[in-house]
Design a protein that fits this description.
Blueprint lengths: L5 E4 L3 H12 L4 E4 L3 H9 L8 E2 L3 H6 L6 E4 L5 H10 L8 E9 H13 L3 E9 L5 E7 L4
Parallel strand pairs: 1-2, 1-4, 2-3, 4-5, 5-6
Antiparallel strand pairs: 6-7
GO molecular function: NADP binding; phosphogluconate dehydrogenase (decarboxylating) activity
Organism: Champsocephalus esox (pike icefish)
Pfam families: NAD_binding_2
């Protein structure tokens, strides 16, 4: 069975482009989408002839990953992120990494970092925080440093 370096959940345009970029830089990526037909379509079209592999379930995806497992979530910010985290946690082991690539609200990112740290998992979240001056401060937070 092929062993992927990283998995990405969410095959909208940004997810597909990030997968192909990682593939172009020598990484084996496992693609997953909750609508499995999108995985099949992506593998037959945009990822045809690449090293990208697909998964038909979260269990299948996790089984195809090298340890420590690295999983990128590119799903809608908010409840969808929490729902995927809840489904992933029972499948993962201490030291595995979940990366939220969406634009989650910073309080959600902080909460997730603390929760994952307590479970022995690493969480990397990207969030933006508006400041009074009218701009956006971009920050990355991870469970190992909170």
């Amino acid at each position: 069975m092929a062993q992927a370096d990283i998995a990405l959940i969410g095959l909208a345009v940004m997810g597909q482009n990030l997968i192909m970029n990682m593939n172009d830089h020598g990484f084996v990526v496992c693609a997953y989408n909750r609508t499995v037909s999108k995985v099949h379509d992506f593998l037959k079209n945009e990822a045809k002839g690449s090293k990208v592999i697909g998964a038909e379930s979260l269990e299948d995806m996790v089984s195809k990953l090298k340890k420590p497992r690295r999983i990128v979530l590119l799903v809608k910010a908010g409840q969808a992120v929490d729902d995927f985290i809840d489904k992933l946690v029972p499948l993962l082991e201490s030291g595995d990494i979940i990366i939220d690539g969406g634009n989650s609200e910073y309080r959600d990112t902080t909460r997730r970092c603390q929760s994952m740290k307590a479970k022995g998992l690493l969480f990397v979240g990207q969030w933006s925080q508006w400041w009074r001056g009218g701009g956006t401060l971009w920050t990355l937070t991870d469970a190992g440093r909170t």
